[in-house]
Amino acid sequence: KYIFLDTKKKEKFLMFSNDEVVSKELFMLGDFDLGKFYKVLNILKTKYSIKNIYDIGANIGTVCIPAVKRGLITKAIAIEPERENYKLLKLNISLNNLDSQIESYNYALSFEDDKMLDLVLSTENSGDHRIKLPDTKEGMRNEALREIVKVKCKTFDGMFSNINPQKDLVWIDAQGFEANILLGAKKLISSGTPIVIEMWPYGLKLNNSWDKLQDILKNFDYYYDLSEEIIQKIKINSESIKNLFSNWEEEKVNKHSLYKDLLLI
User: Fold this and answer.
1) CA 9 from chain center: how many Å?
2) Quick one: which of 183, 184, 189 has its CA closest to 163?
3) For residues 121 and 136, what is the distance between their CA atoms, to the nearest angstrom?
4) Which of 89, 99, 192, 210 could join 165 in a cystine, given CB atoms 3.0 to 4.6 angstroms apart?
């Protein structure tokens, strides 16, 4: 069920042997999403001094653990709703002797506190467990056949009040649930703390968050599209939001999902 990996950078990970995405890429390349993290730090270095990361949808610790272990940041708070992922997250934190530098929580983040939500599980991708709300639509990726478990939710603002916008970075990868998380993080947004989100049209549209995210982006001044080779600072206005949400190809079952990673300022 598990594979142990000791990477070239000396991080140690217990991973899922049947995970076709996160664990597989980590095993083959030695890291997962670290390139994106380095990009963000490089963009922010002139005006921010990032010391801490809030890793929402932390999975098994593929971002927060190497970020702390390599000295890129000092501390991390990791939030992961799925129980098996969380179990390995806790073990991996301890394997890397980071218990004093990484806090972890087994919750989903949402726009309400202390509700029990449905988490739809993926058997092939440990990063594709998704929150399903009552108005969530059925998708084309066999979502209706997946096992559902209950998870407790919290709001970001309810859990974390001591945000330092100069030193903190919020990192959200929640499979289309990003808008709902940000609806519970109004104080965070108003603080001016930089936030990284995954923008996945398929997942956003399934839980009716496509329009919600457009409205939320109006609270920010700029975004950077981390998916581009040449990363530019884009001023957020009605025209740039329209451009960002237009001209997406149609999602296809037999192809990789279409998405962007955005840094919001």
Assistant:
1) 23
2) 189
3) 15
4) 192
8 A C-beta contact, residue 118 and residue 110: no
Reduced to 3 states, what is the DSSP secondary structure of residue 160? Answer: coil
CA 200 vs CA 32, 67, 122, 262: distances in Å: 18, 24, 17, 11
Question: Please, where are the H alpha helices in 45-155?
Answer: 64-69, 83-95
Assign 229 a pLDDT band (cuts: 50, 70, 90). Answer: confident
In the numeric block, which tokens belong to residue 120?
Answer: 């739809």
52-109 pLDDT per residue, tens: 999 999 999 999 999 999 999 999 999 999 999 999 999 999 999 999 999 999 999 9
Close Cβ partners of 259 (under 8 Å, ≥ 6 residues apart): 198, 199, 200, 201, 227
Which residues are CB-neighbours of 98 under 8 A, at least 6 positions away? 65, 68, 69
* pLDDT tens digits, 204-217: 999 999 999 999 99
How many Cβ atoms from other residues are within 10 Å of residue 237's Cβ? 12
Give the Å distances, CA to CA, from 96 to 10, 58, 101.
9, 16, 10
Whole-model pTM over 0.85: yes
State how beta strands 233-235 and 222-225 pair. Answer: antiparallel
